[in-house]
């Protein structure tokens, strides 16, 4: 029975496999047949009909015959061969030869791909030919119109092109001749070759039209505008030399001759219609002329400023020399009251030496101006250097003056700060007394003594003559640091005394219930009376925690609450 059931199952599996494989192969055959039909219905005949409307001669006739032969081969040879193989594949499926059928289908698919490439190639070439004919017809008319308009413009405005007109005319004749060849190729049915020629003619016409746009403009610049500007530069140069300007260093005459030669080359280029070369030279010539204008203008401005500022500079130097003399005298007076280091006290002497060198530089400049042998642009550069040095010296003088004024101000401020620190120490002393502390620890006494010592030392330095403000500032900063430290420690000490006193009182509650705590609390009280408040706190806390693990938490809560009530009462 088991063998029967197994055989049935195998048979069923085999049957299902056959059905699925048969269906899969049949589907593939249908797909290949549809592709064959689609290729057979490609619009090749319709496109070939369009070609028949063209001039069926030359290249067109040859291409038409080739395309028709290739299409006929597809229809009469390739497609029937595909039909035969499809029929063969169906027969193999009926015979359950699925492997062979699959191989045949793959062979059919490969052949269909080859046929598709052949058909696509035919249609592409047909489109190029028909499209070329249509574009050639439209663009050819446009090109003919462009050539006609160019000739009209050349005829109407011939004088604006000068000798280049004859060359342009020849170029137009060449373009027209090539256009006639284009017409002949079209007439002979060579549309693709005609298309290539037309594109070349378009490029040539673009160049000719660009030349016709630029040549009149360039001729105006080369023959009129630039020569006029150059002449203006040369005339201005001569007039300025007559007025006493020294301009040999500019070499304008030499550069002007070079520019004239360049403009002459431009005229030759324009006759040959070489526009690009001309535009490069014209651009450089414009830059050079603009540069010449700038150079001459710079000399005019330099002369104006030299004449305007030179005399004033001498007066300003005299002013800063006089002011520096006052600074030297004031420094000597200040040194009687304040100590100045070498760098600080030497500033006026250093400036005096710099002013001396500046005077010598000015004398040399004044002499060169009087000799009239140096270009004003060079003189003005030297004058600006002197002006910059004067500005820097004035800045240093003002800075040193402010420094001297600051010394007295610093002295007053230091005295006020010292007085403020004394008052602060008095407040600290008063606060300690009002706190009724049992005693003061040795470390606190040392800090208080240090603070008083720093105040006294600062006062000593502040009363010295001459006064050393740097030393005063250092001593004052040391005193402020010591007093700030004393302030913080005072607050800590008062709080520590209060805390230890409250904790001892809290601990005394345990004496009746825990007699063992008595000895530790006694030690804490002794430490408290000897001003060892830290040790008193430690002994008391250890004793309380030993007999009651939650005692310190209750004390902390109670103490915090008392502090809050006290702070609230003080604020009211």
Can you offer a commentary on this structure?
- The two termini are about 110 Å apart.
- The mean pLDDT is about 80.
- This protein has helices at about 1-40, 45-50, 60-95, 100-155, 165-185, 190-240, 250-270, 275-335, 340-345, 345-370, 375-435, 440-460, 470-505, 520-530, 535-545, 550-570.
- It folds into 4 domains: about 1-140; about 160-275, no CATH class; about 300-415, Methane Monooxygenase Hydroxylase, Chain G, domain 1, CATH 1.20.58; about 435-570, no CATH class.
- It has 16 helices and no strands.
- The chain is flat, with a radius of gyration of 56 Å.
- The longest helix is centred in the middle third of the chain and has 63 residues, at about 275-335.
- Negative regulator of FtsZ ring formation; modulates the frequency and position of FtsZ ring formation. Inhibits FtsZ ring formation at polar sites. Interacts either with FtsZ or with one of its binding partners to promote depolymerization.
- It is found in: Cell membrane.
- It is a single-pass membrane protein.
- One of its GO terms (cellular component) is plasma membrane.
Q: What is the H/E order?
A: HHHHHHHHHHHHHHHH
| Low-pLDDT sequence parts | none
For the sheet with most strands, the description reads:
none
Which shape, going by the Cα principal axes? flat
Which percent bin holds the helix content?
Answer: over 70%
Number of domains: 4
Q: Estimate what percentage of residues fall within beta strands.
A: under 5%
Radius of gyration: 56 Å
- Terminus-to-terminus distance: 110 Å
Tally of alpha and pi helices: 16
What structural class do the secondary elements suggest? mainly alpha
- Return the average pLDDT rounded to an integer: 78
Give a count of the beta strands, DSSP E runs of length 2 or more.
0
């Amino acid at each position: 029975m088991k063998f029967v059931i197994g055989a049935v199952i195998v048979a069923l599996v085999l049957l299902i496999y056959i059905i699925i494989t048969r269906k899969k192969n049949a589907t593939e055959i249908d797909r290949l047949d549809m592709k064959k039909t689609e290729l057979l219905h490609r619009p090749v005949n319709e496109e070939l009909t369009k070609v028949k409307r063209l001039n069926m001669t030359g290249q067109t006739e040859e291409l038409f015959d080739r395309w028709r032969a290739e299409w006929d081969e597809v229809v009469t040879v390739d497609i029937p061969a595909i039909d035969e193989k499809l029929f063969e594949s169906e027969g193999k499926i009926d015979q359950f030869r699925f492997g062979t059928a699959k191989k045949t289908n793959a062979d059919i698919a490969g052949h269909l791909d080859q046929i598709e490439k052949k058909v696509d190639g035919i249609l592409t070439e047909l489109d190029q030919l028909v499209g070329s004919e249509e574009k050639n017809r439209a663009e050819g008319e446009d090109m003919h119109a462009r050539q006609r308009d160019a000739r009209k413009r050349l005829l109407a405005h011939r004088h604006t092109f000068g000798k280049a007109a004859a060359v342009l005319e020849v170029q137009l004749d060449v373009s027209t001749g090539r256009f006639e060849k284009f017409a002949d190729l079209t007439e002979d049915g060579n549309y693709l070759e005609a298309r290539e020629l037309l594109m070349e003619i378009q490029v040539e016409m673009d160049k000719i039209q660009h030349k016709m746009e630029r040549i009149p403009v360039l001729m105006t610049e080369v023959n009129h505008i630039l020569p006029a500007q150059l002449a203006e530069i040369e005339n201005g140069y001569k007039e300025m030399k007559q007025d006493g300007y020294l301009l040999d260093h500019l070499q304008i005459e030499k550069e002007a001759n070079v520019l004239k030669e360049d403009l002459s080359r431009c005229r030759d280029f324009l006759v040959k219609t070489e526009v690009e070369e001309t535009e490069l030279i014209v651009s450089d010539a414009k830059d050079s002329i603009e540069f010449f204008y700038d150079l001459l203008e710079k000399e005019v401005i330099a002369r104006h400023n030299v004449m305007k500022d030179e005399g004033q500079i001498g007066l300003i130097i005299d002013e800063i020399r006089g002011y520096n003399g006052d600074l030297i005298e004031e420094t000597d007076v200040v040194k009687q009251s304040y100590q100045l280091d070498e760098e600080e006290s030497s500033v006026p002497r250093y400036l005096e030496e710099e002013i001396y060198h500046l005077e010598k530089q000015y004398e040399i400049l004044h002499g060169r101006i009087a000799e009239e042998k140096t270009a004003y642009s060079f003189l003005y550069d030297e004058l600006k250097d002197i002006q910059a040095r004067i500005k820097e010296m004035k800045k240093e003088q003002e800075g040193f003056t402010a420094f001297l004024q600051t010394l007295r101000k610093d002295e007053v401020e230091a005295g006020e700060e010292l007085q403020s620190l004394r008052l602060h120490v008095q407040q600290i002393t008063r606060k300690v007394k009002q706190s009724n502390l049992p005693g003061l620890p040795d470390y606190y006494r040392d800090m208080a003594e240090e603070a008083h010592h720093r105040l006294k030392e600062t006062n000593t330095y502040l009363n010295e003559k001459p006064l050393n403000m740097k030393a005063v500032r250092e001593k004052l900063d040391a005193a402020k640091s010591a007093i700030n430290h004393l302030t913080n420690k005072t607050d800590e000490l008062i709080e520590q005394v209060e805390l230890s006193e409250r904790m001892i009182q809290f601990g005394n509650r345990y004496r009746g219930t825990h007699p063992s705590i008595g000895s530790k609390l006694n030690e804490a009280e002794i430490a408290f009376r000897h001003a060892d408040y830290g040790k008193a706190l430690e002994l008391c806390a250890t004793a309380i925690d030993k007999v009651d693990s939650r005692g310190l938490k209750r004390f902390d809560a109670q103490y915090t609450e008392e502090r809050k009530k006290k702070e609230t009462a003080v604020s009211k």
